[in-house]
Specification:
heterotrimer; B: Rossmann fold; globular; C: alpha/beta; eight-stranded mixed beta sheet; elongated; disordered C terminus
């Protein structure tokens, strides 16, 4: 029994220790991010790695999500003869929730895990130490540009997902069920607000971008410098950032739409 | 312990370590380490695996800080430095890592040019010349467009060496430079260490556990053990040492002051408690 | 060179992102004149029911503005609704009436303006005198009971 309590205490302390390290890392990362901005070409390279390479999966899944929303939404709305609101339902779901959240989850799986593996490998092969010995700060040269790129890329990816999802819903609503095209778009335009819905969605995805990139870079930087350590860190990145996305989504939704 | 008559070597040493203590969490690594690295010489630091040889280079480079004691590089206190002053000091050091540590997403040329691009504003034409000169020194000018993944272990280490000397440092540290190399590559690296030291007037620190290779390039040898210097001297002095610990390591004897058995409970009690 | 294609791809990515944001801003949210000039008018109601801030303000079913704030008048305890009206609707007569209405089945409430006939138009800071409060279910039932033959539909919540 005492052992059990001691184990809880021990893992609690370890967890707190890691939390403290990650916060410390965040400040170093932010300072590195500011210092890397003058050399924006480094950020552009990373934008390719985290943004362009994630774009395809985001576009394809966004289209499918929009089509599924179109199907499900239509089947429910038609019961109330409210299929004219299909555009509104699809757009609100996507812009407020699914766009930011799903793109962040996919981003964590595609780009976050790649970032962790890359940084962890650079650590395991002493590339980060070598940079330090060459009087180059890895925070500025390696971590900073990746963080800035993640922060820029995710809101763009989320916007892409919402936009293509709305088009997917249109394909189903108009193409399959014959919902009037004008009604689809006008119900959307009447009900979706630029500030309340679109902008809040963008704010969400900026927060998610911060969280995912931070978690991914920290896990990579903190990984044990062995192949096992790197693979574990990669798994932890996906698990931790997915949980953090969903948890913070709840808080953000409550703050933004719940009138808290 | 030998008391060598090499006092002229140690006037104004490049690196001086005094009474250094350090422990990784609970495990003590160094307990009162004292050491001086002579200028312009090849100093080889030997010791059994896990004795903290490579860690020692972390202290000299300022990547680690001792719990107690002082590390001087060229008369400056290393542990008290951080930020830009530390980086300025590191420009006088080059380091060759065991894994070569080439940046995997850059070509050989870009790897060697990396310190120049980061530290200087030299025009591309000059960078080109400097990189070609350093690659020629290590015999790999023809490999400049290859990626690190296309290099053999020995070639990767030579590229890393070219990168380490591209800013013309005053001192270069080699972390286990002979590990995992075939005899030819090993010979090449040994020749390069010696040649670079003499031609460029560098101070070289080589960390290794290969006694034969270490002794054949060393001007001076330190042997580490139990967190302190177990013995030091010229290679000849070390090979002919009377000291038990030095003799055991230099001759690779399985038993001696460093026991064959890991510390354990008495053997008899262990096997007699089986029921 | 390699970095050239990379830059082209990143440029393409950014352009596509801008296009996506444009779709969201214009096609999805139809943000005509959002953030443009507005003027504030007020109206006092006995009861605002379920009216929310940011609810639309409509004239004949056309959106002309939105509810900016709802507060209590400290003297007579009536509810004061502040509305931001888009500035190009600068010809609403000062004797217009305001009522709180319910849209369709879903029951989101909005402010409906009934234009009057005066030559003087509503301007910044003006107050609408003629108002009709939100219809409460109880009121609705009693109205229904006393109404003769009018085919009111009772909305249930």
């Amino acid at each position: 029994m005492m052992d059990w309590i001691a184990r809880i205490g021990g893992s609690g302390l370890r967890y707190l220790g890691r939390l403290g390290q990650s916060v410390l890392f965040m400040f170093q990362m932010l300072s590195g991010a500011f210092r890397c901005l003058p050399r924006f070409s480094l950020v552009i390279q990373q934008l390719y790695a985290v943004g362009v390479l994630t774009m395809l999966i985001i576009l394809v899944s966004g289209l499918f999500v929009g089509m599924v929303l179109g199907l499900q939404g239509y089947y429910q709305l038609v019961n109330f003869s409210a299929e004219s609101s299909l555009g509104l339902v699809v757009a609100l779901f996507l812009v407020r929730e699914l766009g930011p959240v799903l793109s962040a989850l996919l981003f964590a799986g595609r780009a976050g895990s790649a970032l962790t593996a890359e940084i962890g490998l650079m650590k395991a092969t002493e590339q980060l130490s070598a940079m330090e010995m060459m009087a180059v700060d890895p925070m500025q040269r390696v971590i900073g540009p990746r963080f800035v790129a993640g922060l820029i890329a995710l809101p763009i990816l989320a916007a892409m997902m919402s936009a293509i999802g709305v088009i997917g819903g249109y394909l189903i609503g108009y193409g399959l069920f014959g919902v009037d095209a004008g009604v689809y778009w006008s119900s959307m335009q009447a009900g979706v607000d630029l500030v309340d819905d679109v902008l809040n969605g963008v704010i969400k995805s900026i927060v998610f971008g911060f969280i995912v990139t931070w978690v991914a870079l920290f896990e990579g930087y903190d990984a044990l410098p062995t192949s096992e350590g790197v693979s574990r860190a990669t798994t932890r990145t996906v698990v931790t950032s997915s949980l953090a996305i969903l948890g913070s989504d709840f808080i953000l939704t409550a703050l933004m739409f719940g009138g808290l | 312990m030998t008391t060598p008559d090499n006092s002229d070597l140690f006037t104004n040493p490049m690196v001086e370590i005094s009474e250094m203590h350090f422990a990784f969490s609970e495990r003590p690594i160094f307990a009162g380490l004292k050491m001086a690295i002579p200028r312009g010489k090849v100093t080889v630091i030997m010791g059994p695996s896990g004795c903290g040889k490579s860690t020692l280079l972390g202290f000299i480079g300022g990547r680690l800080r001792p719990n107690k004691g002082q590390v001087f590089f060229d008369g400056e206190r290393v542990p008290q430095k951080s930020g830009p002053p530390l980086f300025t000091m590191r420009r006088k050091m080059g380091m060759l890592f065991q894994s070569s540590a080439l940046l995997t997403d850059l070509s050989v040329y870009e790897n060697v040019a990396f310190p120049l691009r980061e530290q200087t504003d030299l025009p591309e034409a000059i960078i080109r010349i400097l990189v070609a000169m350093k690659l020629e020194m290590v015999g790999l000018r023809g490999a400049r467009d290859l990626m690190p993944s296309e290099l053999s272990g020995g070639m990767a280490r030579r590229v890393a060496l070219a990168r380490a000397i591209v800013l013309d440092p005053e001192m270069i540290m080699y972390d286990e430079p002979f590990v995992g190399l075939d005899p030819i590559s090993m010979g090449v690296i040994m020749k390069l260490i010696r040649e670079l030291n003499d031609a460029l007037g560098l101070t070289s620190i080589v960390v290794t556990h290969d006694v034969a290779e270490g002794c054949s390039i060393a001007d001076y040898v330190y042997l580490l053990g139990e967190g302190q210097v177990a013995g030091h001297g010229t290679p000849e002095e070390m090979l002919n040492s009377e000291d038990e610990r030095v003799r055991q390591f230099m001759n690779g004897l399985p038993d001696g002051p460093v026991g064959y058995h890991y510390p354990a409970d008495p053997y008899l009690r262990d096997i007699s408690t089986i029921e | 060179m390699h970095s050239k294609t990379l830059e082209i791809w990143v440029g393409f990515f950014m352009l596509l992102g801008v296009a996506a944001v444009a779709v969201l801003a214009f096609k999805v949210s139809g943000s005509a004149g959002t953030g443009g000039d507005v003027f504030r008018i007020e109206a006092k109601f006995e009861n605002v029911g379920g009216l929310n801030e940011k609810a639309p303000v409509m004239v004949g079913g056309v959106r002309v503005g939105r509810v900016a704030e709802i507060r209590i008048d400290k003297e007579d305890y009536s509810a004061v609704v502040g509305m931001d009206i888009d500035s190009h609707y600068d010809n609403l007569p000062i004797d217009s009436g305001a009522s709180i209405l319910t849209a369709g089945l879903l029951g989101a409430q909005f402010v409906g303006l009934e234009p009057g006939a005066d030559d003087i138009f509503l301007e910044q800071g003006d107050e609408i005198e003629i108002t009709q409060s939100a219809i409460q279910l109880e009121t609705l039932i009693s109205q229904f009971m006393f109404s003769q033959g009018s085919d009111n539909k009772a909305d249930s919540e």
